[in-house]
Amino acid sequence: MLKRTAMVLGLIIAGGCTASAGETAKDIKPEDLINKQTSLEMKSFSREVEFIDKRTNEVLYKHETGSGEINGAEVADALAADLDQPMVPAKITEDGQYSEGQKRVILDEDQTAEMLENIRAFDRTIALPIVESAPNVKPEDISGITNHVIGEFKTVFDPSVKGRVHNIKLSSNAINNVLLGPGDRFYYNLILGERTEARGYQKAMEIVNKELVEGIGGGICQTSSTLYNAVDEAGLGIIELHHHSKQVGYVPKDKDATVSWGGPDFKFENTNDFPVLIRSAVDDVKGSITIQVLSANEPAKS
Prior knowledge:
Strand content: 25-35%
Number of strands: 16
Structural class: alpha+beta
Helix content: 25-40%
Largest sheet: 6 strands, antiparallel
Distance between the termini: 72 Å
């Protein structure tokens, strides 16, 4: 590099290059030439690197290597926000058939950030570390799955409050007959979806900031609380749980599970080495909801 710079400097002094206005050859320093040469070399090696979804070969992010440093963690977080999706469990349909769920998709953000910040000299295309996990249950796992009740809980309500009863029945139907294989996760908000009038939910009283107010979907927290107690009795792994801001009457203190769309959720995981079935039933005449966790196997007693 020094020999090359000396040659260039010699050419300038010999009149082989025109200095800028007000600048003479003797004003140009060797270190200035080195910096200019380095900049030119960096520019010549600048290239576009594509980060792709290896499942589809779709380009999800492009980076120009000569454009400066990259905040790998920030980019990885933005990519994960678009890519990540929770698992939708499998289910038994009303006619007793198996319905497969949706894969869980996760972007390994730490690995992605490291890849972004350490692009190698000849990298042109880089596959993002995307991990998929399909529901871990198969059609043949349905056989005998109602043999054992490993968890059960029942709560009661006033059957005359029509809007609330309707919402309890709607949410109960949504979680009924959900199948969870070993390691599969259940996200209550995901299973129910957004509670809107267009989706059939009605106005009913609910607790918001320690106050009873009317809202769309009031009553669904009784379903989630009943589910929590059945799941807890079955010994499944609780991932996320939130309590109401004031005491509710249908379960004991701290045995409730409040949920809201875009806010608190109730999540759990089947930590057994065998599949389980969630069964939910509403008696809208007597006013009760009963939720069971069933399996073909009986858990080993600790």
